[in-house]
Specification:
The protein is an alpha+beta fold. It has one helix at about 1-15, and strands at about 20, 30, 35-45, 50-60, 60-70.
Length: about 80
């Protein structure tokens, strides 16, 4: 019985939700579970026709990895 409870808790904490949240900042998407999230950045910057693109990882609400760069909008 303990093994079943532990397996269920691990599934709840680490398996991502089936929803992907699309943010209204230019197209960023977030895939998340209760303990972690991965963000695929594609957001507008202050400069016209430029986007910040890249990826970020959060564990327990703390950002542990972020790799983004600025790209111009394709012509």
């Amino acid at each position: 019985m303990k093994k079943v409870i532990i397996i269920v808790l691990l599934i709840i904490l680490f398996v991502p939700f089936p929803l992907r949240f699309e943010m209204k900042d230019g197209g960023s998407k977030e895939l998340c579970a209760l303990t972690w999230s991965v963000i695929n950045y594609h957001r507008l910057t202050d400069e016209p026709e430029q986007f910040e693109v890249g990826i970020g990882v959060k564990i327990c609400g703390f950002e542990v990895y972020k790799n983004t760069h600025i790209e111009k909008e394709p012509a």
